[in-house]
Amino acid sequence: MRVIFRCDPMLAEHLPRPIPARGALPDWLRAMPATAYSAIHGRDIRTLKQCPPVVDAMTYGFMVLLPCDVTVDKGTFSWDWEIPDPVTGNHPRAPLSFHTPGQLAGSPFAHPGQAALKFNSFWTIEVEDGWSLFATHPVNREDLPFRLVTGLVDCDRFSDGGINFPAVWKDSEFCGVLAKGTPVAQCFAVPRAAPRLEFEVFDEKRQAAYAQTVADVLSAPGVYRKRFRARRGRASE
User: Fold this and answer.
1) Is residue 237 in a domain?
2) pTM of the full predicted structure?
3) DSSP string covering 67-99
């Protein structure tokens, strides 16, 4: 799968490039202990840090990054970002804009009088024919003070315009800086063809395989990681 990013020539030296998601793991994941005491079990047990599906989801695809520092003061957003004028018509200069509150009406994201953020992307994104781009909140990043609204864009066709990523700001009392390079969207290509769903019951062979697999997983730590987890290649430019 090739993913092609393009930007205005005047901004190429001023924009952080999207990066493989494995390069944007949060500090809390690195700092958290591998094991913690469980009063229920009466012993130390493994934490999320040792759960391959959790970590693999966080490292999947690529991250779109905030292009500059954004200062936030209880719902007021400002930035000081000196960039050249883009030579491309209808091109944004601001790192974010807004959706009016009415655009959220009737959804779980709606809060009285609160607009939605719109993270502007300065990169166009092209994927291969028959694929779409799935854009969602950075996986398991509940520490971020916003929540991205998930979307699906047919970037094999829509590849000449930038994608805007809508989000809801979660912490109305937040005062601080959303730093340049903060991941704002986690993206990956997905096939557009719908899957065919099939349903079966276990035959004797599947029953035995189920029982043995569960017994193996419960017998020792790391069984999934050692026997079932697929090796993942690193993204290349």
Assistant:
1) no
2) 0.93
3) SS-EEEETTEEE-----PPPSSTT---SSEEEE
